[in-house]
Amino acid sequence: MFKLPQKSDLILVGSLLLICLGLILAPNGFDKTTDTNSVRVKAIVLSTNNNLMVETGILKTGTQLLQIKIQNGQFKGKELQAFNQLVGRMEFDKIFVKGDKTLTVLNLNKDQSNIISANVVDHYRINIELWLLVLFVILLIGFAGWTGIKALLSFMFAGLAIWKLLLPGFLKGFSPIPLSLGIVALLTSAIIFLVAGTNKKGTVAFLGAMCGIAVTCVMAIIFGDLFNIHGAIKPFSETLLYSGFAHLNLTEIFLAGIFISSSGAVMDISMDIAASQAEVINHNPSISAKKLRQSGFEVGKAVVGTMTTTLLLAYSGGFSALLMVFIAQGTPMTNILNLNYVSGELLHTLVGSFGLILVAPFTAIIGSWIFTRVKSRS
């Protein structure tokens, strides 16, 4: 039977929906940096010409000529020749065949009435991405109902906050660590109270999560300095410096990324423990604070064990190719562990795991006090 949402839930959902709408409409300060005499369109490849491509082993350089037909926009239906520039790097290069759908940039004249040239950027994937998103939404709402709708709203809010607040703030020169901590606190409060409700369970989960995130932040700062790692180890970081953002503190951005990336798992654990303690107190209102705290510890032990491994697998999965290179070349373990990008990932994994471990006792202790304080006072 469908249960009508509480009034407080509706108010919170409505408020967050308005905030999301405001973030969508708000400029991020970098909207006008693109060339006004260029447009991006969807096109389909009619034919290809690979005569100007040069193959050197598995790498390809030069230019692939494409005959394309524009599928949308002002020039829909127009056929023209486009260029696909190859730089000899497999992570950037794309080879197109007849029938492929492409994202193409059209360079226009001053009055934007004619096309000067066309450059193919990449395969056009938006349609597939939208179908994947729709499937995700259907499964989430179909399984979780009203809670799924709230989770979807929190998902959207998190994405908008990162895209519209956090990243533009970095680019504008705000101190990365305080800014990140503030954004994470905002996201944590919105997500937890939206899902758990504005009640004791939500309060316990929020306070426990923030304690875990704060510990992760402090440890990231301390051990980031001891590890002597520069933030430029992250992909495309150096490119930012050459793009007019030499003022960026890449190291602080890297350290901020440590507690940002672990904050989701920290929220999961704090919510699990808070929810379990709420169920215990509902079924046994006379339970003592000590026993409720111990109950939270037991749940925390089980959750932390699997979540820590999950964090390790998530990070190592992204670096599987690098690890395979080390194994194939027989690189000594001492060399591997001292390389800056490997040390950076170790710092990322271990410091993030500290937050996961400590959030469990923090939440259990906070929950044992908040859930039983009314009974203790009476």
Automatic annotation (TrEMBL):
Keyword Nucleotidyltransferase belongs to the record: no
Species in which this protein is naturally found: Ancylomarina euxinus
InterPro entries with a match to the protein in the record: YibE_F
Protein name listed in UniProt: YibE/F family protein
Lineage: Bacteria, Pseudomonadati, Bacteroidota, Bacteroidia, Marinilabiliales
Keywords: Membrane, Transmembrane, Transmembrane helix
Listed transmembrane segments: 128-146, 177-197, 204-227, 239-261, 302-327, 347-371
Pfam families assigned to the protein according to its UniProt record, in alphabetical order: YibE_F
